[in-house]
Amino acid sequence: MIKLQNIVLLFVFFCSAEMLTAQSHYPGQHADKLTIKETAPIKAYAFDMADVKLTDSRFTENMERESAWIMSLGVDRLLHSFRTNAGVYAGLEGGYDSVEKLAGWESLDCELRGHTTGHILSGLAMLYASTGYEKYKLKADSLVEGLAEVQAALGDEGYLSAYPENLINRNIAGQRVWAPWYTLHKIYSGLIDQYLYCDNEQALDIVKKMGNWAYHKLQAVSPEQRKVMIRNEFGGVNDSFYTLYQITGDEKYKWLGEFFYHEDVLDPLKSGEDNLEKKHANTFIPKLIGVVRAYEFGESETYRDIADFFWHTVVDHHTFCTGSNSHKEKFFKPNHQSHYLTGYTGESCNVYNMLKLTRHLFCLETDPKLADYYETALYNHILGQQDPESGMISYFLPMFPGAHKVYSTADSSFWCCVGTGFENQAKYGEAIYYHNNDELFVNLFIPSELNWEEQGVQISQQSHFPKEGKTTLTVKTEETKRLSFQIRYPSWATAGARIKVNGKKIKVKQEPGSYIAISRKWKNNDKVEIEFPMELKLNPSDNPDIVSISYGPLVLAAQMGTEGMKKPAPFSNPDLHNDYYTFDYNVPENVLNELDIKGVSLQEWLKPVEGKPLTFKTEKDITGTDYTFIPLYDLHRERYIVYWKLKN
Hints:
Mean pLDDT: 94
Radius of gyration: 24 Å
Shape: globular
Distance between the termini: 49 Å
Low-confidence stretches: 1-23
Structural class: alpha+beta
Largest sheet: 9 strands, mixed
């Protein structure tokens, strides 16, 4: 394992920074590939992947590491379980000696095997679409060709998977089985992405055949069987079927999307009932993505209302300060975050899916609260999900005082959060900008370059955010253009906003949690300088005496050292069954999350460290402690504390 991690790190060293953006389909994208267009009222459209390029930042560093890991996993290894299932030649003696087997959730006896290949198809599609580098397309083409061979060997019906079709039969019969439609969703999605982003017609042919197989398979399922079947986790397969319908116009695929509408779970949301407690969160959230997708191309307005109510319920009542949710993968009782400060909070897949849902809702509503949440979850969870040294991914974001992040292994884990992690770290450019006619929404302050082809305008964003609360937009245009820039005024920016256009201050009348509109005729090299001063803030949980600390949008955590951490910590132990779920953090007894602040203000007992951006230390004369706080996304390979019991 150490050798493979070293290979990954060497690959990172020799790779240049690449930009990745959106996964899936959002309104405004892939117009030339859709037969069925969006008909719902759209307030903001997403840019196509090639329109946004990231420039150097922590985000591009994460993407370099992600690219390295994806490229280090050989095609034969990723196809081995598929070939074994179909009896296709995989190497001498079935690949026994010639193919190094993947382990963990990709083991040949794991019922979820094959999901990672789907995620990697999406990751490679994004890499190629964003950079044009042939190495990504060549690898993806080899995977697609291998899957076509497997599909042909499995028969004329179109079934394709790394496991036998009998797993689907067991699901239909209500027998115990581990999420076969969830796994198929990843393969559907990866193949669709290969078509949308790489123009791979073979991938579209494969996935249409898979859709036809699913249609004929499920046409024979009785209403009673269906009700039992969809209790099993099916991921976002409804989203995939709706996207396939939009591409082809074939009603079969729309029928399949509707087939996976889960009445028992979704209908209570229509009447405003919070029915989330004890529900498996990552099973629940993708159902809403499918629902809002159906609304986008003409289904009932009720679908949008269901998704909107769900989003606000999760964010307002079931979410930690980091934008993550859940305890041991399940939603807890509303407004009980302080009761669940455990080592098994914040499943990364949940955040991945909440951000997808957020993007769809933003296109429909342009509510700045949606963009605020996106920023919170992006910086405090997704950016810090990856270990900067190894590129490995954490399953949970623990809130237990003194816990630490537990990372995957390079080829012996492949949890669901590793799969979504292959995409999370590959789409940082997706939500920076949106547009509608002559309006440009600037939602995130990430160094990047936007090509707004419809308007003949390019926007360059230069920033050291969040090390400082400043960013600069530079306009490039051959012709003067009248446009409205909608600059997000973050809800955390309570110290105000300072805006200059070409060096001249403009008066800001708006309040935090809104958009600052700058409408004018823009000419070449016009500049907009934006500053949102960042401040320290205490954030009460449901219990006002238990708080987290933030600086601007960043959650701060105290560094608590490595005492008691024994190898393979901070990495998962592949010899133990899913040990991320039972991990013993061995927290020393002297690690406590209590602070006596003696009734003084936060600014008095927590001070910035000179010369170290985003670093703060406690005033020992007040608190009696000597803790250093840094952004949670930058805290790795040691213990930390996020939530504190304050004594006055």
